[in-house]
Amino acid sequence: MTQPTDIRGEHLTTALSLAASGVPVLPLRAGKVPFGNCPACTGNACGGRPNMKTPGPCQCPDVCHAWAAATTDPHILTSPAWVAAWRRAAAVAYHPGGAGVTVIDLDDPAAVQWARATLPATRTVTTTRGEHWIYQGTMPSSNAIRPGVDIKSLMQYARWLGNGTGITTPLPDTVRALAVKNPPTTRTAPQRLSVPLRGHGGECPHRTPTYLERGIAMAVQRISEARSAVHATVYETFLAVLSTHGRCGCLTDTHVNRLFTAAQAKGETPRHCTDAWTNALTTLGL
């Protein structure tokens, strides 16, 4: 019976092909889990990749450190330690974030139905129990954002199941918003300004320069200082501004234009700004 050997050889062939196209890959053992750390790296004794949050500086030649082991280097993939792992591998996995994509893992028919009714269309890959929806762009990974739905992107791995069907579309704010927790509600006074407050002449207290102006200035600074994940930073900043000022009517077109101008100076298009603002409003129920 040569089937197991043929399958394992096919795994390495697939891995090398993906690596050549810029997709970082790693082998998975039975149960769709990564190979464990070697004895020298157990408990991160090697000093590298603590808690798998960074990809170095460990130089271990074995298939260690789960998603952080993913590589595009053919010399590593065909090294003796990795060949031994491929011989025992049950599947090929890849690091979505390292490939510049985000995978929405839909684990059952109900999750697939929800995605089709909620998310923008993109490339889809059939899985054992559901589908992977793949978008161009990266974001933090998050498990169980809703029943049967996980986000796999940065610091995560996904099983390679083929190219799928459809065109990979840009990662939309509707997907980024899925991983955003509900904003804190400690600032309750502004949300209750449905009638004028006594002693304030009917004006929202956010209109004072020392509060509103400082908040807008800090938001503009946060966007302007972003060095990566600009799109996510813009959306999260819009969300923060609206969670504080969005319910009391203190924001004016001038304030919004300052935020949009800062975002466009970082390369965001007017359409992206409008979409991010609209999605933030929707998330907060405004």
Distance between the termini: 63 Å
Tally of helical segments: 9
Helix content: 25-40%
Unreliable residue runs:
1-6, 50-56, 182-203
> Strand-residue fraction?
5-15%
Order of helices and strands: HEEHHEEHEEEEEEHHHHH
Q: What does the main sheet amount to? A: 6 strands, mixed
Roughly how many Å is the radius of gyration? 23 Å
The number of distinct β-strands equals 10
Mean pLDDT over all positions: 80
The dominant shape is: elongated
Structural class: alpha+beta
Structural features, described:
With 286 residues, the protein is an alpha+beta fold. The chain is elongated, with a radius of gyration of 23 Å. The protein has helices at 3-20, 74-77, 80-88, 109-118, 173-176, 209-224, 230-245, 253-265, 270-284, and strands spanning 25-29, 33-34, 91-94, 101-106, 123-126, 131-136, 142-146, 149-152, 158-159, 169-170. The protein has 9 helices and 10 strands. Strand 1 (25-29) and strand 2 form a beta hairpin. Helix 6 (209-224) runs antiparallel to helix 7 and helix 7 (230-245) packs across helix 9.
